[in-house]
Amino acid sequence: MTINEKVLFHKDNRYHQVTFVKELNAYIIESAEGMNEVNNNRFEDSDIYPLSLNEDLLNTIYADLVRYYS
After folding, report:
1. pTM for this entry
2. Distance in angstroms (rounded) separating the CA atoms of residues 17 and 7
3. List of residues 6+ apart from 61 with CB closer than 8 A
């Protein structure tokens, strides 16, 4: 789903976005409770996945996001 030009995963009124933070060299999964928080860009950091993790693990994380939140 795309809202305000952001790709979001949605399940049970929770919205999740994946952001790459260059300074941390990591992907961060952020979440918001409901559409009001999404519209106000009030996402909270949930999980951090540094690129130092092996590629297989990152592919698994992506597959899980698609399976559970899309």
Report:
1. 0.67
2. 6
3. 27, 49
30 closest CA partner among 20, 40, 39? 20
What digits encode the pLDDT tens for the residues 53-68? 777 777 877 787 777 7
| Tens-place pLDDT, residues 29-41 | 899 999 899 989 8
Compute and round to an integer the Cα radius of gyration of the chain: 12
Distance CA 38, CA 49 (A): 22
Amino acid at 60: T
Sign of CA dihedral 66, 61, 15, 18: negative
Report DSSP state, residue 1: -
